[in-house]
Amino acid sequence: MSPPSIVVLISGSGSNLQALMDNQSSDYKIIHVISNKKAAYGLERAAKASIPTSVHNIVPYKKKHPEDAAAARADFDRELAEKIKELNPDLVVCAGWMHILSSECLRPLREADIPLINLHPALPGAFDGAHAIDRAYDAFQKGEISRTGCMIHWVIEEVDRGEPLLIKEIEMKEEESLEDLENRIHSVEHVAIVEGTKLALRKKA
User: Fold this and answer.
1) Could you read off the pLDDT of 91-108 as tens digits, one per residue?
2) Is residue 122 a contact partner of residue 148, using CB atoms and an 8 Å limit?
């Protein structure tokens, strides 16, 4: 019996994609990688591993709707959902995917029983959205928090507010630079994304 299939969405270097690639086993197989940035290094990582890739960039949709950003985004999301449905994976993993998915994408995938999970570098309810690590670091410097972390959560329309599947806490350290904190969080992410993917597939099964 073939392992469950996953599609991975990326926007950048793909270090979390690499963690998923390195840990493929009977638990899952990556069947496709989609990037919204054609220069994303993660595409090269996938190609080296003979994993099919494609680019789904918003620029053509903005050209199609030059005066209507909402319409461009809706078309982008709708066609992304169609592309994913054609691939028909058991799960979609957002691994550094820097585009907020609207109901135009999420609704048809829900109807097709294709769930999505996301990796977010913060604890539930803390620092939703972009620049979460920077914001946590600033809050620690002000004495507002003593720990941060990362989580894997189900993707819903509300940004980073889906039910958490897996939470990893990280104690903040005095005298630590932002770069050092980022490196510590990224190393934890690489473990969390693999564990979270396996957990999501078990829950779906």
Assistant:
1) 999 999 999 999 999 999
2) yes
Q: What is the pTM of this model?
A: 0.95
State how far the Cα of 36 lies from the Cα of 80, in Å rounded to an integer. 10
DSSP classification of residue 65: S
What one-letter code names the amino acid at 130? A
Alpha carbons 95 and 196: distance in angstroms, whole number: 11
Report d(CA 36, CA 57) in Å as an integer: 5
What is the C-alpha end-to-end distance of the chain, expressed in Å? 14
Strands across the sheet containing 164-171: 53-55, 29-35, 5-10, 91-94, 116-120, 147-154, 164-171
Residue at token pair 């620049």? 131
**Pick the catalytic residue: 32, 56, 99, 120?**
120
120 is a catalytic site residue? yes
Distance CA 172, CA 14 (A): 25
- Which letter does DSSP use for residue 163 in this model? P
Give residue for tokens 């972390």.
149
What is the predicted pLDDT for the residue at 102? 94
Q: In whole angstroms, give the CA distance from residue 101 to residue 202.
A: 24
The answer for residues whose C-beta is within 8 angstroms of residue 95's C-beta and 6 or more apart is 8, 9, 10, 14, 16, 17, 20, 42, 119, 193
Q: Which amino acid is at 44?
A: E
